Structure formats: C-alpha cells, structure tokens
C-alpha cells in the first residue's frame, strides 16, 4: 500500500479542565511524530500482512527524525525535504477528562507543499492500494498532486481511498469542491461530523448512505459509537466500538483507517475490516499520541 499525506511533529499537551486564560494551566507535554497520513501508514504496517510505503514532505529541521520513526514502525518512507518551509507542527490540546477530547492548532508547514513534481508513476509499482490524506486537498499544490495520483492509480486499476481529515478545513474548502475532487475514488473514510457536513444531513446513518451514492464504499468513524458501513446508498452494517478507557483521542481515526485498509488488503470484507478498525481505534485512545505501540 502507498500512503500519500502529511508528516508533522505533534506537541501534545494533556491538561485537565478548561484552559486558564491569561495565566498558567498545568499540563503534561510531549513531542511526538504525527500527521494523519503518516499515522495511517504506521497503523497499517503495525496491523501486519502488507508492505506500506509513505510519500510525504518535511522540512530539513526534522527530516532524519521522522524518517527514523517511520522506519521503526515498519513503514518505508519517501520523504521529500523542503528547503524553504519547516516540518509541519500541530499543537494537540487534550482535556484529560472522561472523553480525552482533543483540539488542534495546526501549522501545516512543509506537509501541504507536496506538489506534482514530487509524484512519479513509478511510486505505484507493485502497489495494490493508494491511500490519500484529506489534508492534501487543503492547498493548491497538493490538490494538483492528488489529481495526478488519482489519474495514475485509475490508469493502473489501483483502488484509491481517502480520509477527509478535518471538518473545519472541509467547511473552508466547500462541499461541492470536495465531492468533485473525490470523484473516481473507491473508499471514503469520514468521521461522523465530516459525513454530516458533506451531506447537510443531521443523522449519521442518512449522511453515510447519501455519501455512498458518490463513492462506492463509505465507512464512517463514530468514536465510541463504532462505525457505519454503506454501499450504493444503503447502510449495510453498524459495527460496534470496543470498550476503552481513553487517555488521548489524537490519531484514533487514523488508527481505524490504517487497520481497516490493512484488513482489506489481506482479503477481509468491509464489515470485518471495520471491526479491525474499531479494534485499532480502541487501542489508540488508550495511548498518548497518534502512533501504534513500538514493535517488540
């Protein structure tokens, strides 16, 4: 599998209760590798059964570190070094209350400066599936790369999946523009909020069913409510979540996507693959950061 997407540095600040404006709020702070695309690649490799490659763009400031971290997770990285922009950085504010919900402050940096010059059709040699991070749709250069990669994949008969990535950025991009950009893709992996935003429908099941009229297979991640699977305008399964005690929800959706895609590649059907995604999501929320456990 080839993943094309963002590689960023996560600064995770875990605090309890509201932030105290104008003064200090005590927090446990860690710097960790992240990025939706990179996280999906790492979880897919962790779930096993497939070789995972990653195309991303980073600054010279953190290139070596990110390459080592990806390789340690079993991913074969192809990182373009940007000499003009630093590696993207995301500050993850995680309230350590019961839901461990997170808020992101995002400086995309080099990650959204991927452009058509970074693409080569040879990247698809031996590839059975292409996965694109939705963050690539939020800048003009990386949108052009998405179009080129999608055309290359369709020419080779390689199925393509995409995770919309961010409801906030999607709203700025526009629904019609997004749906035009994903035309021809095989799998869409939105969150519940993203599915509702993209359709204007308030109920997740209705939203997922409607989206599956545009993309053949839609699997919506619903956190503690599991996942919905839809094909051709009909919800075909509701897969329950596994029990978990959340510490940090950063990257839980990426974990789901990585395990789901790895399972598809090893022959699982969509419903069974969604069960694997829910297993990975439960494991992810009990960890700090967006990456899987280090290999033994």
UniProtKB/TrEMBL annotation:
Pfam name, any one: PfkB
Coiled-coil annotated residue ranges, if any: none
Gene3D superfamilies: 3.40.1190.20
InterPro entries xref list: Carboh/pur_kinase_PfkB_CS (IPR002173), PfkB_dom (IPR011611), Ribokinase-like (IPR029056)
A GO term, aspect molecular function: kinase activity
Keywords: Kinase, Transferase
Domain of life assignment: Bacteria
CDD domains named in the record: KdgK
Carbohydrate kinase PfkB domain span: 2-295
The keyword Kinase belongs to this UniProt entry's keyword annotation: yes
The name this protein goes by in its record: Sugar kinase
Lineage per the UniProt record: Bacteria, Bacillati, Actinomycetota, Actinomycetes, Kitasatosporales
